[in-house]
Amino acid sequence: MEAEEVLHAEWQRKAVVVVAGSAADADDCRLLLDILGLDSQVVADARRAAASALAVKATRKRPAHAA
Question: For a 10 Å CB count at each end of the chain, is N or C smaller?
Answer without folding.
Answer: C
